[in-house]
């Protein structure tokens, strides 16, 4: 295995800093959101973004596409959207000799960065087609399979307020997302900065910093970051402690959790923690990486019960209790 050097760690960290600086030209605030989205892209995971309309979700993905030199596409999910509208379909065309032939016409999913806007407005059939591509990174039409070009990243959004006419994602499909991020409403100062920025131009001004090949190289480097057994066990225990059926789970879990996280949560914690360590200029994973990433990793993978709701506890409140009892 190729050795990780401080020089490689520094180059990794510098590249990410440049990406964040360019994104700051087009996206006001939301530093934690940007930080975690970058982690997800390098990790090869997908992100579910929850926030009210107009907080800059589309602008963020467009700016990401520019800074990372990656093609961007947007899919607006509606109840009448068909799976073929997402994945593409076979069409019959005449060739130059006038003979009929079948050709595959790719859908908007064939892009490096895909914004799936209001994914919970599409029917379960279309959601399943989308989530299959997210998991497998390929599309099967008839007897033919078409691979999605890497790196491939899906940022799906959903509106937490308006739920009429929506089709909530099942828990098994929510598990396909590496992170669930909550986009907060901007502060007054941030709102003023947004208004000033958009008065000058609505177009993104960020410049390209890295490209797809560099992202894949960064992913390979991150996979080589060592994780000591104690930190690995902390991550594993944290995920196991979300299951109320297990005998040695914390008291908070038994009291507030209906069901816990899948093994994908533990895999995601370690993968994302390696990237977070490199972004911070370190070549080893620390306990703080696991604790910081536990919230976006677990908040869509555990379900709290009525006791938590009755005590006005959020999912993040319960996660914080579980982390404290796992230490």
Question: In summary, what is this structure?
Answer:
It is built from 14 helices and 11 strands. With 327 residues, the protein is of the alpha/beta class.
Please describe what this structure looks like.
With 327 residues, the protein is α/β, with parallel strands linked by helices. The chain is 47% helix and 16% strand. The protein has helices spanning 6-23, 31-43, 57-67, 83-87, 124-136, 171-174, 188-200, 212-223, 229-240, 251-256, 263-279, 287-298, 306-310, 315-326, and strands at residues 47-50, 72-76, 88-94, 100-106, 113-117, 138-141, 144-147, 153-158, 179-182, 257-259, 303-304. The radius of gyration is 21 Å and the shape is globular. The protein starts with 5 loop residues before the first helix and ends with a helix.
Short key terms for the protein model shown above:
Helicase, Ruva Protein, domain 3, 327 residues, 11 strands, two-stranded antiparallel ribbon, 2 domains, Rossmann fold, 5-stranded parallel sheet, alpha/beta
Please outline the helices and strands:
Layout (H helix, E strand, L loop, with lengths): L5 H18 L7 H13 L3 E4 L6 H11 L4 E5 L6 H5 E7 L5 E7 L6 E5 L6 H13 L1 E4 L2 E4 L5 E6 L12 H4 L4 E4 L5 H13 L11 H12 L5 H12 L10 H6 E3 L3 H17 L7 H12 L4 E2 L1 H5 L4 H12 L1
Parallel strand pairs: 1-8, 1-9, 2-5, 5-8
Antiparallel strand pairs: 3-4, 6-7, 10-11
Helix pairs in contact: 2-11, 9-11, 9-12, 11-12, 12-14
